[in-house]
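Sharing a chain and its predicted structure for anyone who wants a worked example. Both blocks are below, sequence first, tokens second.
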Amino acid sequence: MRHLLTLPRLASRAFSTTVRQMKNQVPESQKVFLEDNGLPIHIKGGTTDVLLYRLTMAITVAGTGFSFYWLLFASFPKSKA
């Protein structure tokens, strides 16, 4: 019976915790992305963005070359030797 009486107090304590004040980091991010340093917007985020960009471009170029190879291969008739 005792635990039933303490249930409302525990429930109110769970929902009345203090909220930690967090610093707004949007202005710092805006400064990085809005500064005029000659870089395109998709690589201004740093090394990770540059690596992801280069990986994406490499996969795109390889896929395009692979597609052209198979189109060329399919365009020639097969010999009936």
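Comments welcome. The chain has a mean pLDDT of 86.
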